[in-house]
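One thing: mind reviewing this one?
=====
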Amino acid sequence: MKDFAITSQRDFDRAAQCLRDLERFADRRAQLLASLDVGSLGPGQRWQLVVDDERIAEELAWGHLYLEHLVNMEALGSALSGLSHLAA
C-alpha cells in the first residue's frame, strides 16, 4: 500500500490533500474489494487485506486528528505572536 505521509506534512493544505488522496484511495479500494470473490483468495491474501484495512482506518483517523492539530498549532502561534508584541 502507498504511504500517504499525512503526518510528514507541516502545511495544512498539503496535509489535507494527502488526506483527501487517502480517502479517495480507500473508497476506490472498497469498490474494488466489493467486486472481488474474497473467498477465492488464499489465507495470506485475505490476511493482507485485513492488515491493509486496519492500516487505512488508522491512517484516516490519525489524519483527521493531525489536521485538527495543525489548525490548533497555527492558532497558538498567532496568539503567541500577538502576545510577544505586547511584551516588547
In short: The helical segments are 12-35, 43-87.
